[in-house]
TrEMBL record:
<dbReference type="Pfam" id="PF03931">
    <property type="entry name" value="Skp1_POZ"/>
</dbReference>
<comment type="subunit">
    <text>Part of a SCF (SKP1-cullin-F-box) protein ligase complex.</text>
</comment>
<dbReference type="InterPro" id="IPR036296">
    <property type="entry name" value="SKP1-like_dim_sf"/>
</dbReference>
<dbReference type="GO" id="GO:0009867">
    <property type="term" value="P:jasmonic acid mediated signaling pathway"/>
</dbReference>
<comment type="function">
    <text>Involved in ubiquitination and subsequent proteasomal degradation of target proteins. Together with CUL1, RBX1 and a F-box protein, it forms a SCF E3 ubiquitin ligase complex. The functional specificity of this complex depends on the type of F-box protein. In the SCF complex, it serves as an adapter that links the F-box protein to CUL1.</text>
</comment>
<dbReference type="GO" id="GO:0006511">
    <property type="term" value="P:ubiquitin-dependent protein catabolic process"/>
</dbReference>
<comment type="similarity">
    <text>Belongs to the SKP1 family.</text>
</comment>
<dbReference type="InterPro" id="IPR001232">
    <property type="entry name" value="SKP1-like"/>
</dbReference>
<comment type="pathway">
    <text>Protein modification; protein ubiquitination.</text>
</comment>
<dbReference type="GO" id="GO:0016567">
    <property type="term" value="P:protein ubiquitination"/>
</dbReference>
<feature type="domain" description="SKP1 component POZ">
    <location>
        <begin position="3"/>
        <end position="61"/>
    </location>
</feature>
<dbReference type="InterPro" id="IPR016073">
    <property type="entry name" value="Skp1_comp_POZ"/>
</dbReference>
<dbReference type="InterPro" id="IPR011333">
    <property type="entry name" value="SKP1/BTB/POZ_sf"/>
</dbReference>
<dbReference type="InterPro" id="IPR016897">
    <property type="entry name" value="SKP1"/>
</dbReference>
<keyword id="KW-0833">Ubl conjugation pathway</keyword>
<protein>
    <recommendedName>
        <fullName>SKP1-like protein</fullName>
    </recommendedName>
</protein>
């Protein structure tokens, strides 16, 4: 299997096995249309720290694809070890890269992490961060799912 080279929006280089890359429908279309094996594919709007987590998720979902119990445990640990702001960026990356399973993992996990918090706590958590416009839109979607108390 081929290695695909990626570059994050903050110019960090990454390599990923082709099978893992194909979990992203967007990247799958790119590598099927062009022979991108020897070139970097730029991943706009995804910083290196988040792309590292996306790659980890995809890699583990490929190597353990036939073992549902291992995947379940990996997913539980994966979301447990990600803070709320990073989870927002992961959701945004999953949406941008069209990795539905990652988005479907992160969204309810973020809701669970936030549901016990009050609105002002959530605002402090997210608005002290310099969230870009796209992540801000994801935040609005999440906020609309919560029963917020002042």
């Amino acid at each position: 299997m081929s290695t695909i080279y990626l570059k994050s929006s903050d110019d960090q280089p990454f390599s990923m096995e082709e099978a893992a890359v194909k979990l992203s429908l967007k990247l799958k279309r790119i590598i099927e249309v062009k022979d991108r094996v020897n070139y970097f594919i730029r991943i706009d709007n995804v910083k290196g720290i988040i792309l590292t987590k996306v790659i980890d998720y995809c890699h583990n979902h490929i190597i353990s694809k036939d073992d549902t119990e291992v995947l379940k445990l990996f997913d539980q640990e994966f979301v447990r070890n990600v803070d709320e702001v990073s989870m927002m960026y992961l959701m945004d990356a999953a949406k941008n890269l069209e990795i539905e399973s990652l988005y479907e993992l992160c969204y309810p996990a973020l809701i669970d992490k936030l549901k016990a918090k009050k609105l002002h706590e959530i605002e402090e958590m997210f608005y002290k961060e310099d969230l870009d416009q796209v992540a801000g839109i994801c935040l609005e979607t999440v906020l609309s799912s919560l029963d917020l108390r002042k």
